[in-house]
Amino acid sequence: MKPTIYDVARAAGVSTATVSKVINGTGRISDKTRKRVTEIMEELRYQPSMVAAALTRRSTSTVGLMLPDLANPYFAEIARAVEDRGHEFGFSLLICSTDNDPSKEEKYLSLMVQKCVDGIMIATSTGQDGLLRELAEQRMPIVAISRELPSLPVDTVMVDDFMGGYMAGKHLVGLGHRRIGIIAEKLGASSSPERIRGCRQAMAEAGIEADDSLIAEASYTVDGGRKAAARLLGGGEPPTALFACNDVLAIGALQAAFERGLQVPEQLSVVGFDNTMLATITAPPLTTVSQPIQDIGRRAFDALLQEIRGEKRTKQRLVLLPELVVRRSTAPVAGGL
Amino acid sequence: MKPTIYDVARAAGVSTATVSKVINGTGRISDKTRKRVTEIMEELRYQPSMVAAALTRRSTSTVGLMLPDLANPYFAEIARAVEDRGHEFGFSLLICSTDNDPSKEEKYLSLMVQKCVDGIMIATSTGQDGLLRELAEQRMPIVAISRELPSLPVDTVMVDDFMGGYMAGKHLVGLGHRRIGIIAEKLGASSSPERIRGCRQAMAEAGIEADDSLIAEASYTVDGGRKAAARLLGGGEPPTALFACNDVLAIGALQAAFERGLQVPEQLSVVGFDNTMLATITAPPLTTVSQPIQDIGRRAFDALLQEIRGEKRTKQRLVLLPELVVRRSTAPVAGGL
DNA sequence: TGCCTAAGGTTAACCGCTTACCCTTTAACA
DNA sequence: TGTTAAAGGGTAAGCGGTTAACCTTAGGCA
After folding, report:
1. Which residue in B42, B26, B33 sits closest to B12, CA to CA?
2. Is the pLDDT of residue A74 over 50?
3. Is the C-beta atom of A18 closer than 7 angstroms to strand C?
4. What DSSP character marks residue B333?
5. Domain B55-159+293-321 belongs to what architecture?
6. Which chain A residues in 30-49 sit with Cβ < 7 A of strand C?
């Protein structure tokens, strides 16, 4: 049987209170006693039970992380960043993949409450009513990552999607493109609309009229991107450049181009978004708008931690700047400027 | 304040024991009482605390998952598979990325013990002494995923690495290749050696002599693979085919080929291993040995669950068969057979 | 010498559930 | 009518820690 604090106390000839104080470095304990207790703990290979401690402390040192799919590289990278930052402060993670399924969201949210997480990070577009709203109103620490939960009193850490879209658009316009297709995620609550708006702003500044026939919706998969791109490229007057609202979709676009025998970037430029590791391994490597994923994960955790510790009075909204990473999937429009 | 079981009991005019029985469906409770208690719980929005329950039940319904890096697609996919299977049975996951750093491994192992996980899944090559051995000997449920822990009494779920290597080798040999370079992970305890052995077996059967100058070690990154491939391709009599011990390394090989101006597959064939999503997005798409990742995750969890429930007497070693997925990165050797 | 205080511990209640065991009521049955 | 037993629920002792409050001792100081 695993030794308990009682075993340690008995062996050391002290009370459990003393042992507890030694473990936590609280209270006043003489060096002599501290040393003896420490030795006994070592000897018994004692590991304090965090679940018992959690019960009295009313804190589990665990935070929940809800995301659409852990197998998606973007979210896996986010999760890793949060994990690392959390561990630095002694927190561990309860990760749940929702597949953007509202019923799973609700179920996992409830799980997190039952497991008594100290706070929740949400990287999934989610219903803003039901349990989540209830929790937010009860002041459960919550931070939204990369997606907004506009009607809820929670912290938000995200990238400037509009600016990112603008950068992508500007880049393409600068290369002389005037027919620019856009591939967007389906989800209403996703970040695509802002990215699109940004891209169109850049186009508008160059005097290019918005053309809704140049926007295609896709499901959040490579294949979704491929099909959407195929639709755009198969149209009457096909675009010379494609802006995909994330790297996964951009990869689909690359594939669609390949299938039509279009050279990238000579005959078609492609820009992605996120700058996941995927962008570095495509051929050609993908020009993309880079999200500071490490930073997002870290800041999001830090914000949550402040909430947990009650160090904050007001909800904050942190918007980080994206950066354009030019690789080899974009080039001046065919035929020159 | 969150309502407790006492609040529910009081409001329903019953004892906490009764409420507990209603929650867990144990004991004998009349329909009338059950209904009343259920209604009160709903009304109070009561969520039972799993941490309190864990303390008395001595079970947290949580399993630990140790892997090298959650941001690595292969492990992210494993994690996702385990997560899904776990949730089916009411278990959640405590994920820790070790970066193959022995000190982190030890630290996270200790964390898992303190958090009282019901079992541990290890997908990281790890020191087999220290805490892990101790736990294994104390019959803590443990299963090794994809890597063996030979000297420890634990269950193992893995793919037949030898066979996978053999399939890759056979495929290349069948295409007429005779100079086949191999890119291996560095780590001693990794699965590379078996994969290499399999590949060489296939070569030997074709009458090709082993040539150690055709093996290059790489760190587990795209860049590592790129450098290793560059070394092999830069040699005196360069190989016409490359077998990389995983997809990440294979992608590096693809890049190295591109840099040298070698056409894949016309001038160089490349085979990977794992069949992660990466293999589908490279250009050309990667021929690779497929691991049944879903299956591995699922089986591994099932084995662990059996251990946890004490339904098993003997340790088992489950070896799944890989499958060769031929895409477009391999072709008959230049110059024909 | 007497009083005060700091140092170093101890006591015991409590955290929110679970569960072995016990008690009461009622119906069945001989 | 008395006996049993099943049904339905209550009692209370933990689970392994934490912590407020309290106790004891000894040194400092007037």
Report:
1. B33
2. yes
3. yes
4. P
5. 3-Layer(aba) Sandwich (3.40)
6. 30, 32-34
